[in-house]
Amino acid sequence: MVVWERPEPPERPVPAPLSRESIVRAAVRLADADGLVAVSLRKVAAELDVGPMRLYGYIDTKEELLDLMADAVHGGIRPSGDGWREVLYSLAETTRQAVRRHDWFADLIGSRPALGPNALAKGEAVVAAMDGVDLDDVMPIVAAVDAYVIGAVRREAAERRAERSSGLDKEQWQRSYGPYLQRTFATGRFPALATVIRDAAHLDADETFRLGLDFLLDGIEARLSR
């Protein structure tokens, strides 16, 4: 029986009431503050001021805890809109915002099955919006959008972590490496790359994400129209 089906222990008259939901909330607080490395059953128990063994009535393993944490975040991803394109766009944006609220979610999304009730509700909303699309095309389309979003949010999360660890923001990083790139491009070995970096528009993270998403959705729409 998976964790979402397994009943919780009966309530007991103890000084520190406990539930699966309170355990997950505590784990999310720890991860929000210090990343997934800060999450263990022992640390969660300390956060709740209970003995670690009490948690095992609710959760068997840390992997189950991570699944529950991920599903809790999925609960805040509620794609909406009229038609498949608006819903997929909303799915991408709300997923990205969820990762911005919970940086550690980037490490879990796409790396483990999303089978909790919140993830399934999200999937139901997305697939229901694909009504009218050939049944064989539905999951490949959703998978393509998921792959784009997962790659984008993981890259953004990695950049935020690099800024925190290095102490350099994007502008400072560019100033630091700018002279090296100028010397390298002056050799003439990378003319196409030099032209793009020198002459193309430099979009911010929001613009880059949305433009890439539009490229993908335009391609899907063109394929479906055929």
Give a short overview.
With 226 residues, the protein is mainly α. It has 11 helices and no strands.
Secondary-structure element order, N to C:
HHHHHHHHHHH
General form:
flat
What is the rounded Rg? 22 Å
Give a count of the beta strands, DSSP E runs of length 2 or more: 0
Instruction: Report the total helices.
Output: 11
The separation of the N and C termini measures 45 Å
Protein described:
- This protein is mainly α.
- It is built from eleven helices and no strands.
- The longest helix is centred in the middle third of the chain and has 32 residues, at 135-166.
- The termini are far apart.
Which descriptors would you attach to this protein?
mainly alpha; 68% helix; 226 residues; 0% strand; single chain
Blueprint (SSEs and pairs):
Elements: H1 20-34, H2 41-48, H3 52-55, H4 62-74, H5 83-101, H6 105-108, H7 117-128, H8 135-166, H9 170-186, H10 191-199, H11 205-225
